[in-house]
Amino acid sequence: MFSHSSIITGVSWKRAHRKVAPLLYGLVLSSLGLLSAGCAGPQLGEIRRQMEGLPSRVQLKTVPFYPQKAYQCGPAALAMTLTWSGLPRKPETLVPEVYSPELKGSLQPALIGAARRLGRLAYPISGMNVLLREVASGRPVIVLLNLGLSWYPEWHYAVVVGYDLSEGYVELHSGKTARELLPFRVFGNTWARSDYWGLLVLSPRDLPATARENPYLQAVLGLEKARQWGAAVEGYETALRRWPGSLGALMGLGNSLYGLGKLKRAETAFREASRLHPASGAAFNNLAQVLWEEGRQEEALRAVQRAVALGGPQATIYGDTLKEIESGKP
Amino acid sequence: MMRKIAKPISFFLILPFLLMGFSISRAQAAMVGTEAVLNPAPNGETVRVRLSNFLDRQDVQAILQSQGISPREAKARIACLSDSEVAHMAAVMDRLPAGGGGVGVLIGAALFVFIVLLITDILGFTHVFPFVYHHRS
């Protein structure tokens, strides 16, 4: 009965559906019992309970829609979020960096790497709770869905641009459809297969609503890795507004300013780090290096001696700095 | 004869220089990187080096190219990731999904798969076919 191609059209499908539905469901329940147990998504009632205090309906209006070409949902999803974040991009311009032609798709690290190389903060998230909080705070989220099955995957990137808790759907810019409404049940099931993988693409001045210190700093570190020093400086400054005195953020700020060649400001950051974290040899070491490059050998020597005295896993670097400074010429 | 020997020998001659070049570039300024502060575990760099070395292998490059990925681009992507992300990537690299989308993926697939997907679609486990209407729940 399934080899008949007419079931693909909606009308005849409905007719066929009525006839074969009981049979189908019986078949499914008996043969796919395991599967249904493994794929049980979050229940709407539970989601509603967890989301108390959030607006029940959210629709992000400023996220542009770019329909995907062929399999290129990755470039399209990234372009939508980049443009929303204030960095206008068309999907075509992202294809070389993001899309792998033979895979007919885009890998997650490619999306992350491309965003970071453009000076945008790529912050991975996970879970329905976090997703809805981010959307409620006005930020669109790229999600990786498996529209197929675990053993027959059909991976797909879409951008969540809204939700409605009372009606029970998630709103997506997906494929060739703008504002597709997907019931929570279906969305939850298809999203579960990527372990609820989501990605925020933000200006480094923006802080995710659900940001946690270490993951956020890791994301800013990605900007440093991409040698986007200016964006990294902004990211660390954003982190310091939220987590004042954070050692990781102060060190990152100093290192990024150093990367930009702004020694004076780097010195300030490392000095602050060493003042607030007097047990951090790294802070004293980097302060010493900057002071030395500024031609202030005596101060540099004092700072590096503190680092050497503190020791720790980076002690060999402190030793190198000491030797360098004692040698006398920057 | 000479040629045959020269190749492996030159490889062993070049190797230490490659390794040296790497350590020199790491130590040009005696600064502690942000990475070392954020991730005190020292194995991040070794994972990155291993991954990078892996990408340098000719057989791997051939595979990358057959997948349409340029090895240079692959390395550039790795360079943009933090140590913990690289470690994660090394662990899951072979089972990383690539999002593609589109019903075209079905071309060439067995009828059996089509049927199962159709059924799972109807039950709301999947969302492959746009013509299957989902009741809201």
Description:
The complex is a heterodimer of chains A (330) and B (137). Chain A has 330 residues and is α+β, with helices and mostly antiparallel strands. Chain A is built from 15 helices and eight strands. Chain A has helices at 10-31, 33-38, 44-50, 73-84, 91-98, 108-117, 128-136, 184-192, 213-225, 229-242, 247-259, 263-276, 281-293, 297-310, 315-327, and strands spanning 57-59, 106-107, 121-126, 141-146, 155-164, 169-174, 177-183, 197-202. In chain A, strands 1, 3, 4, 5, 6, 7 and 8 form a seven-stranded antiparallel sheet that branches. The longest helix of chain A is centred in the N-terminal third of the chain and has 22 residues, at 10-31. Chain A is elongated. Mean pLDDT of chain A is 86; it is low at 1-41. Chain B is built from seven helices and one strand; from the N terminus they run ααααααβα. The model of chain B is unreliable at 5-28, 92-97 and 101-125 (pLDDT under 50). Chain B has a domain at 34-122. Chain B is mainly α. The relative contact order of chain B is 0.06. Chain B has helices at residues 2-26, 34-38, 43-56, 58-66, 71-79, 83-92, 111-122; one strand at 98-99. The interface between A and B is large, with 93 and 60 residues.
Count the E strands of chain B.
1
- Biggest sheet record of chain B: none
Number of helices of chain A: 15
Could you list the spans of chain B in which at least 5 consecutive residues all have pLDDT below 50?
5-28, 92-97, 101-125
Class per helix and strand makeup of chain A: alpha+beta
Order of helices and strands of chain B: HHHHHHEH
Derived from helix and strand composition plus strand pairing, the structural class of chain B reads: mainly alpha
According to DSSP, the number of beta strands of chain A is 8
Rg from Cα of chain B: 23 Å
What overall geometry of chain A do the principal axes of the alpha carbons give? elongated
The helix count of chain B comes to: 7
* Arithmetic mean of pLDDT of chain B: 55
Q: What value does the average pLDDT of chain A take?
A: 86
